[in-house]
Design brief:
This protein is 27% helix and 21% strand. The protein is α/β, with parallel strands linked by helices. The two termini are 26 Å apart. The strands form two sheets. It has a six-stranded mixed sheet with strand order 1-3-2-4-8-7, sandwiched between helices. It has a single domain, classed as Collagenase (Catalytic Domain) (3-Layer(aba) Sandwich), CATH 3.40.390. Strand 2, helix 1 and strand 3 form a beta-alpha-beta unit.
Amino acid sequence: MGGMRMPLIFLSAFFLLPEPATQADPVAKPAFKACIATDEDRPAPRKVMREAVRAVSEEFRRHAGIEIAASHFAALPPGRNAGAWVVGRALAEFCPKGADVFIVFHEWKKTVNEPGPDGAYLTREYAGEAETCFGVATVYGASERLKAKDAAGKPQLHGVLKHELGHLFGLDHEAGTESFMHESVAASKNGWTEDIASKLRRSPEPVDLKCRR
């Protein structure tokens, strides 16, 4: 099944696009089309994905003038859903050629054993990750992240998705906990700073994407 092309479901009605920008908003850039994906054998609920994409898209539009429009849906079969590189190659095959970014929602969690300061290995849980070569923003434990709150009492899911999309648009980690680019989603208020908004307005394009050229 891993070698078969999976059918795509057009979701323009399912994923409600944000309202047009008001006069007070920055001038909106051309919309970036996002192909949304989840696991075929353990899919994230559509309501969870819809809420996250809509909320985060609205924030990017309001603060940075960037439209992220959900356009298609892809199901990742077993064997093609683990690891950002593997997922990126799969979505480059399953998603439409016109998709600018890929957004992946996993219900399962990702944990990695990494050496700590004293040399002992510690188990680290990843909330999400970004793979810029294919343009993949990934969220792990999507339903649980929707229930869990960040330092400002907002859903961690939205903060994780903003953070990983931020990496796709060239943003680096920031030390301040006000910013959604802080390394820890739980410790951050996942807000927008003027520095982040101005960087995105100056360079409103996903970086890299050389693996899809």
